[in-house]
C-alpha cells in the first residue's frame, strides 16, 4: 500500500515537483514524459535525486499511439518505445504507461491491436519492464477499461497488464462493479483523480478540471472500494491535470494529496468493514458558538451591534478578558485579551471572527483524525477546548455535544438572570457561516471539511457581484444543523476579494442567524437601532410577481428589506442583512422551513446593495 503522485499534478520544474512530493510524504512518484524531456537533469541525475529524497520512481508516462498504426508510423512508434526503455533503465523505473491509441490513423482491428501489444510486451519483458495499458476516455477505439481488460487478457503476456485511471472510467459512467472482473495481479498501476461533474468534451474536462479525490463529484470512493474488494494492494497514484494546480504552491497540493489519499483509503476500507487506522469522520452535531477577536478601539461598537441584534451578556471569563453573549441557542464569545491567540489574530486581520466552536459526537477522535490527516492543532484561549487550525489561521474548536454548558460554567462567571433572558432572545440560533478564501485555496479548504468531518457538498453556484463572478460552494452536515458556504473569486474588485485584501487573508465574512418569525426579528433589531442593508424597490416589484405575494407580505418585505426565495417544492427562505461592521464582516438573518439552499438567486442583489457602500481608493 503506497501513496504516489504524478509529476504532472504539481507546479514547478521536475526537481521542484520531486522535492514537493518527497516533503509531503509520498512514497513514489510518476514521471510525466514532458516533465522529463524538458528537464536539464539526466535520467541518472533524476534517479539520484529521487532516491536521495527517499522516493521511488514507480511509473514513466505516457507512451502514446503505439497499437494498430500503419507504416511508417508503426516502426517509428516501436523505435520511440525502445528509447523510452533506455530512459527507464537509467531512471530505475520498471513500469510504463501505454495509453490507448488516439490517432485517427489507428486501426480498430482487434487482432492487429493484440499482435502489436504482444510484440511490445515481449520487448518490455525482455528488459525486465512491464507495460500498463490505460483506456483513455477519448481514445479512437479503446476508451473503456472493460475493453482494455479484454485486450490484456487476449495478449496474455507477463509484459502487459492493465492500468486503471478513475477519471477515464467515471467520466464515461462505467459502473464501478465492472472492476470485479479484473485479476488484481494484472493491474500494473492505479491512477486516481476526481473532477467536478461537468458536461463537456472529455479531453478538455480531463486536462483542465481534474482535482483531488474529495474535491470533486465523481465516485472515486466507490472505485477504490471495488479495487480493495478484489484485493488490489498496490500503489494509489494521484494524476491531476488541473490549471490551478499548475500555478499554485506544489507544497500545498502535495500535502493535500496525501490527506486526500489517506482519507480515501479510510473510506474505502470502512465500506468493506476492513480495519483502518483513522478514527471515523467527525460527526458535527451543530455550531455551538463563534468567537470574535475584538480590538480595544472597536469594543464599544461591537458590543452595541450585538446588543442591537438582541444578544445579552451572560458571562465573563474568570481569568481573561473574554465575554459570553447569547440569544436563543446562539452563543458569541467576544475576546478582548491582549495576549494569546485572539490578539495575534486581530493584529493580522483586525477585529474579526477568529474561531468557531463545533459540537461533535467525539471530540478526542475528531482531533486524532485531524492530526493523522495533517491538520494542525492549537492551544486556544479557552483552555479546555482543543482546536484545529482553520481558514486564515482561525480556529475550529471541537467539543463534545452537550459539554458546552459545563465548560461555560467552569470557565466563566455566569449571570443566571441574563442567561434566562437570553433563552427567549429574538435570534433563535445559528443558520450558517460564510467564509471567503483565496481562489487558489478553494479546493484545499473543501478537502479539509470533507476529509475531517462528515459533511456533504451542494452543487457549486456562480454568483454575480457587480465587479466579477464569485464561486460559492455550500458544505453542510446531513441534518442541516451545520452549514457553511465557501466563496472565492478571481475578480480583483469583487466584494469577496476586497474582504480578502482588507482583512489580510481568508476568513469568515458573515454569520447567518435564524428566527421563526423573520419580520418580527427585523422589527426588533431595527427598533434597537441596527442598520440593515437597503434592498431596491425593483427587487420587491419582481418578487411580488414571481412568488405571488399578497399585499400584506409584500408590504412587510419592502418595509423590512427582506429578500425571499422558494424551492421547487414551495419551501420558502426569507433573509435580510445588517450593514457591515467597519467595512468587514456582517450578519444575515434568515427564516427557512424545509428549504435547503442559501438564497443564491438573491445574492447578486445583496452584493450590488453592498457594493453601493464601497469606498473607492483615491485615484
Ligand atoms: O491527457 C492525457 O493525454 C493523459 C495522459 C496520460 C494519462 O494517464 C491520462 O490519464 C491522460
Ligand atoms: Mg491516467
From TrEMBL:
List the SUPFAM superfamilies: Glyoxalase/Bleomycin resistance protein/Dihydroxybiphenyl dioxygenase, Xylose isomerase-like
The top EC class, named as a word, is: lyase
Q: Which UniProt keywords apply?
A: Isomerase, Lyase, Metal-binding, Pyruvate
Q: Which reaction does it catalyse?
A: 3-dehydroshikimate = 3,4-dihydroxybenzoate + H2O
Q: Which cofactor does it need?
A: a divalent metal cation
Span of domain VOC: 286-414, 429-578
Among PANTHER family, the record links this protein to: HYDROXYPYRUVATE ISOMERASE, XYLOSE ISOMERASE-LIKE TIM BARREL DOMAIN-CONTAINING PROTEIN
Please identify the protein, giving its name as recorded. Answer: 3-dehydroshikimate dehydratase
Amino acid at each position: 500500500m503506497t501513496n504516489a503522485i504524478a509529476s504532472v499534478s504539481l507546479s514547478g520544474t521536475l526537481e521542484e515537483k520531486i522535492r514537493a512530493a518527497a516533503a509531503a510524504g509520498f512514497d513514489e512518484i510518476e514521471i510525466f514524459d514532458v516533465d522529463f524531456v524538458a528537464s536539464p537533469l539526466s535520467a541518472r541525475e533524476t534517479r539520484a535525486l529521487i532516491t536521495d529524497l527517499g522516493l521511488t520512481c514507480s511509473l514513466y508516462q505516457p507512451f502514446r499511439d503505439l497499437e494498430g498504426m500503419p507504416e511508417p508510423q508503426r516502426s517509428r512508434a516501436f523505435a520511440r518505445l525502445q528509447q523510452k526503455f533506455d530512459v527507464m533503465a537509467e531512471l530505475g523505473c520498471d513500469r510504463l504507461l501505454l495509453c490507448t491509441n488516439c490517432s485517427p490513423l489507428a486501426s480498430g482491428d482487434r487482432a492487429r491491436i493484440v499482435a502489436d501489444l504482444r510484440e511490445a510486451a515481449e520487448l518490455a519483458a525482455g528488459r525486465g519492464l512491464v507495460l500498463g495499458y490505460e483506456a483513455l476516455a477519448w481514445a479512437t477505439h479503446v476508451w473503456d477499461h472493460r475493453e482494455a481488460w479484454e485486450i490484456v487478457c487476449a495478449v496474455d503476456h507477463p509484459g502487459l497488464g492493465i492500468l486503471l485511471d478513475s477519471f477515464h472510467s467515471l467520466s464515461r459512467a462505467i459502473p464501478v462493479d465492472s472492476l470485479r472482473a479484473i485479476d488484481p495481479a494484472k493491474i500494473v498501476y492505479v491512477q486516481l483523480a476526481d473532477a467536478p461533474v461537468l458536461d463537456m468534451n472529455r479531453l478538455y474536462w480531463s486536462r483542465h478540471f481534474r482535482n483531488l479525490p474529495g474535491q470533486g463529484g465523481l465516485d472515486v470512493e466507490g472505485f477504490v472500494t471495488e479495487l480493495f474488494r478484489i484485493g488490489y494492494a498496490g500503489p494509489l497514484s494521484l494524476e491531476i491535470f488541473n490549471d490551478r494546480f499548475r500555478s499554485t504552491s506544489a507544497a500545498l497540493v502535495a500535502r493535500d494529496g496525501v490527506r486526500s489519499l489517506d482519507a480515501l483509503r479510510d473510506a474505502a476500507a470502512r465500506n468493506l468493514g476492513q480495519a483502518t487506522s483513522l478514527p471515523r469522520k467527525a460527526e458535527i452535531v451543530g455550531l455551538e458558538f463563534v468567537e470574535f477577536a475584538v480590538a480595544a478601539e472597536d469594543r464599544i461598537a461591537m458590543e452595541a451591534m450585538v446588543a442591537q441584534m438582541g444578544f445579552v451578556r451572560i458571562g465573563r471569563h474568570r481569568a481573561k478578558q473574554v465575554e459570553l453573549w447569547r440569544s436563543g441557542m446562539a452563543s458569541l464569545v467576544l475576546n478582548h485579551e491582549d495576549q494569546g491567540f485572539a490578539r495575534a489574530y486581530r493584529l493580522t486581520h483586525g477585529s474579526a471572527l477568529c474561531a468557531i466552536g463545533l459540537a461533535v459526537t467525539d471530540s478526542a477522535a475528531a482531533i486524532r483524525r485531524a492530526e493523522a490527516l495533517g491538520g494542525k492543532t492549537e492551544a486556544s484561549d479557552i483552555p479546555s477546548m482543543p482546536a484545529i487550525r482553520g481558514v486564515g489561521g482561525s480556529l475550529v474548536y471541537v467539543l463534545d455535544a452537550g459539554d458546552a454548558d459545563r465548560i461555560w460554567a467552569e470557565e466563566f462567571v455566569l449571570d443566571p438572570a441574563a442567561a434566562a433572558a437570553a433563552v427567549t432572545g429574538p435570534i433563535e440560533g445559528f443558520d450558517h457561516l460564510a467564509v471567503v478564501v483565496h481562489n487558489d485555496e478553494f479546493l484545499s479548504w473543501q478537502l479539509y471539511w470533507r476529509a475531517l468531518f462528515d459533511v456533504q457538498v451542494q452543487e457549486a453556484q456562480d454568483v454575480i457581484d457587480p465587479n466579477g463572478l464569485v464561486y460559492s460552494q455550500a458544505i453542510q452536515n446531513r441534518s442541516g444543523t451545520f452549514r457553511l458556504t465557501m466563496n472565492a473569486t478571481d475578480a480583483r474588485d469583487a466584494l469577496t476579494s476586497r474582504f480578502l485584501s482588507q482583512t489580510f487573508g481568508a476568513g469568515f465574512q458573515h454569520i447567518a442567524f435564524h428566527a421563526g418569525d423573520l419580520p418580527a426579528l427585523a422589527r426588533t433589531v431595527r427598533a434597537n437601532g441596527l442598520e440593515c442593508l437597503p434592498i431596491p424597490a425593483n427587487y420587491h416589484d419582481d418578487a411580488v410577481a414571481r412568488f405571488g405575494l399578497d399585499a400584506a407580505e409584500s408590504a412587510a418585505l419592502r418595509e423590512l428589506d427582506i429578500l425571499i426565495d422558494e424551492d421547487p417544492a414551495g419551501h420558502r427562505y426569507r433573509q435580510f442583512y445588517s450593514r457591515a461592521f467597519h467595512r468587514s464582516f456582517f450578519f444575515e438573518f434568515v427564516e427557512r422551513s424545509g428549504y435547503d439552499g442559501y438564497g443564491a438567486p438573491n445574492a447578486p442583489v445583496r452584493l450590488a446593495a453592498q457594493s453601493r457602500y464601497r469606498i473607492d481608493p483615491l485615484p
